[in-house]
Amino acid sequence: MSVIIFGSINMDLVVRSPRLPEPGETLIGHSFETVPGGKGANQAVAVARLGIQTALIGRIGNDGFGQTLLQGLESDGITCDRVLHDASTHSGVAMIAVDDASENNIIVIPGANGNVGEADVDRLRAALPQAQVLLLQLEIPLPAVLAAAQAAKDAGVTVILDPAPARSDLPDSLYPLIDILTPNQVEARQLAGFPVNDIETAHRAAIVLRQRGVKTVIVKLGKLGALCVTESETFQIPIFPVRAVDTVAAGDAFNGGLAAGLAADLPLSQAATQAAAVAALSVTKPGAQPSLPTRAELEAFLAQRETPSTPAD
Q1: How far apart are CA 42 and CA 36, in angstroms?
Q2: What residue numbers bound the domain in which 227 lies?
Q3: The pLDDT of residue 309
Q4: Distance CA 150, CA 156 (A)
């Protein structure tokens, strides 16, 4: 019962303003804070807080941010002995703007994350015999993602790829290595090559991606919930209506909840429902890692919502 996350570790520099600025515009904001983040680290925290044995493999830089990030991860019980201290550069940083409607835009400066490569994959290979699930994202170099997926495939470990940040140039050789692909609408459009904005287009995109070799595709559709397409079934994943405060880590929460569910041997539909609940809880609090719920918080949330809403086709 363990999950390895191979990916990015960032410090998020978060500003809040009434609305997001237009190009060339200067706004006066409400606040500024530094918050531990990075898609890899966020997903590791999401898994660990659900009570699953979790290891993170990646890099931090030679700066104060790196030490702060590592201490935070270890305080959540995440195994970080394979996180490399890269003296050649700074830790990854994400510049995040959040408006009063809880929408956001993000600029990521990779730093040490951009140096993740074969040496890091070697550390991953040594850890894979103890893992059930490998969770990947795209905030590290694509060759490292491909090599990590191949290593997990060779070891018989389930591979989940969160294809974020969105890009359209995934190599054909990567798709057959992916057990579960979890794009949002923007990412699905980039990968499939056409707009994805409802259940019908999500299903079309999932079929395209499965034809490239992916076993299961889960397209996240925001307020419409999500759609899961496998070889044998297609089903919608319910939504849990909440009052959103900050959506910045919702995708990471979803993937962490999914990986944790699969590591706990839940059926896919139950793991996906858990993922939706974790994501819903995450948007009710500000920040990336601070918003991610514990197992107790998740169980209390689910107990209050015996029958979640399922969007219509």
Answers
A1: 8
A2: 2-8+39-88+116-304
A3: 47
A4: 10
Residue 95 lies in a domain: no
Average pLDDT of the segment spanning 44-66: 97
Check 86, 162, 179, 252 and give the catalytic one: 252
First to last CA, the chain: 35
State the pLDDT at residue 35. 87
Question: What is the spatial distance between Cα 92 and Cα 313, in angstroms, rounded to a whole number?
Answer: 40
The gap from C-alpha 79 to its chain's centroid, in whole angstroms, comes to 18
Q: Is the dihedral of CA 274, 254, 189, 221 positive or negative?
A: positive
Told to judge if 252 belongs to the known catalytic residues of this protein, a careful annotator would answer: yes
**Peptide bond just before 308 cis, omega within 30 deg:** no
Q: Is residue 188 part of a domain?
A: yes
Q: How far apart are CA 255 and CA 21, in angstroms?
A: 29
Alpha-carbon gap, residue 162 to 218, rounded angstroms: 10
In this structure, what CATH number is given to the domain that contains residue 126? 3.40.1190.20
Tokens of 71: 């201490």
The type of residue at 291 is S
pTM of the model: 0.91
Residue 162 lies in a domain: yes
- Let me know if residue 23 belongs to a domain: no
Per-chain mean pLDDT for the chain: 94
Our count of domains for the chain comes to 1
Measured distance CA(129)–CA(275) in Å, rounded: 25
Instruction: Name the pLDDT band for 1 (thresholds 50, 70, 90).
Output: low
Contacts of 275 (CB under 8 A, 6+ apart): 237, 253, 254, 255, 256, 257, 258, 261
